[in-house]
Structure formats: structure tokens, C-alpha cells
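Hello,

Our lab assistant flagged a job as stuck in the queue for most of the afternoon. It eventually completed. Since we weren't sure the result was trustworthy after the delay, we are filing this so someone can double-check. Below is the sequence as submitted and the structure that was eventually returned. Let us know if re-running is recommended.
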Amino acid sequence: MLGPDGVRGGEQAMRHGGRTALVTGGARGIGLEIGRRLAGQGLRVLIGARKPAAAEEACRAIGPAALPPALDV
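-- returned structure --
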């Protein structure tokens, strides 16, 4: 079932109400899996990684709910 923004999650997507999650270290491993699960629950996901290309690749793997922001932390 799709949520209001076309992302999987249905009822959970409605419960999260357009929230956004920032996942640091989200380009691989546990961070990538967390990003996938959050996107699956209807959240918009910002993937933070040291290498911009890795963040962009992770976002493609997660789908349209994921964005690779430019971070300087």
C-alpha cells in the first residue's frame, strides 16, 4: 500500500505525517538498512555519508523517498 506521497507504508506513512529522518553513515551496512526501513514506513530519508557518490548510490537503492543532502559536519 502506498502512502500519501507515493511511498510504501500505508497506515504507517499516515502516522508519520511527512516526517524526515537523517541517517548518518547511511551509504552502506546498518545505516543503509535503517534508511530502507524508514523509507518503507513512509518517512522521507536523508542519507549522510562521507562520500557524496556513495550517498547518491544508496539513495538510488532506497528509492524516491531518499535524498543525498550536502553535509559538512
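-- support follow-up --
The delay was a queue issue, not a problem with the job. The result is valid. The first strand starts at residue 20 and ends at 24. Helices lie at 11-16, 29-40, 52-62.
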